[in-house]
Amino acid sequence: MRSLMILLMTFLLVACGDDTSTTPEEAKPVAKDIRSEIVTYKSGGVLLRGYLVYDAAIKEKRPGVIVVHEWWGHNQYVRDRAHMLAELGYTAFALDMYGDGRLARHPKNAKKFMMKVLNNMREGERRFKAARDYLESHQTTLEDKTAAIGYCFGGGVVLHMARKGSDLKGVASFHGSLATKTPAKAGDINTKILVLHGADDPFVKPEHLDGFKTEMKEAGADMKFVSYPGAVHSFTRPDVDKIGEEFNLPLAYNEEADKKSWKELQGFLKRIFSQ
């Protein structure tokens, strides 16, 4: 009788199907072979250290995404974001805006490094271009499909490149600085813009926010602005609470805003690269 019951159950599973079984597509996950390397390149005689990441399992050329670091410099966080982009199928390049991979561990040094770049943005633009040239010359990339994303200081950098008429497919700023001394005028902006902003970010004053939105409107920019309630500065960085406590800075991770903003970026990249 036991043998008969086993045979009957086997017949039913074969004939009717097993609801818990996986489809052929589910049973064959997409193979990934993520490769990364630290690379050196130059701008104006200054040695720069970047971080390139791509999926070697993808044989076709694919879009490239530049990642611009926070005011701390080229750290592990920006490399982690580059890896996340490579997992999505892009070639990512975390650039170096400070030179020689310079990294600050105290806000005073971070501000000093940042202001040196901001006070000489012509050189900053050249360093950005050097990184773009390196990325677009890589054997994995489509040189006519490049975007840039940035965090905090880096968000301000990619917005500056947009204001200067860059022909990037798009730029995305995460909790970036919005104020500028060189606002865009009508017709200046040639790239699509995504701004992902913490609604309670104390570093972005209301007048800066209003001024930015007015500037983008008058410039005729193709811009999407997303604000996350309850999110403050550096809301995408999981370890930032410790940094905020150490230096008494209003920084805090917001998991919901982090996930939503990354999903927003994914949709943005798909749109701009499909055109």
Q: What is the third-level CATH name, the topology?
A: Rossmann fold
- Overall geometric form: globular
Number of domains: 1
Report the oligomer.
single chain
How are the strands ordered across the major sheet? 1-2-4-3-5-6-7-8
Brief sketch in words of this structure:
With 275 residues, the chain is of the alpha/beta class.
Describe this structure in words.
The chain is of the alpha/beta class. It has a single domain, classed as Alpha/Beta hydrolase fold, catalytic domain (Rossmann fold, 3-Layer(aba) Sandwich), CATH 3.40.50. Helices cover 40% and strands 22% of the residues. It has helices at 2-16, 24-27, 76-87, 107-118, 121-136, 153-163, 206-219, 240-247, 255-273, and strands at 34-43, 46-55, 62-68, 91-94, 141-151, 170-174, 192-198, 223-228. Strands 1-2-4-3-5-6-7-8 form an 8-stranded mixed beta sheet. Helix 3 links the parallel strand 3 and strand 4 (91-94). The longest helix is centred in the C-terminal third of the chain and has 19 residues, at 255-273. It is globular. The termini are far apart. Mean pLDDT is 90; it is low at 1-29.
Features:
275 residues, alpha/beta, 9 helices
Topology at a glance:
Elements: H1 2-16, H2 24-27, E1 34-43, E2 46-55, E3 62-68, H3 76-87, E4 91-94, H4 107-118, H5 121-136, E5 141-151, H6 153-163, E6 170-174, E7 192-198, H7 206-219, E8 223-228, H8 240-247, H9 255-273
Parallel strand pairs: 3-4, 3-5, 5-6, 6-7, 7-8
Antiparallel strand pairs: 1-2, 2-4
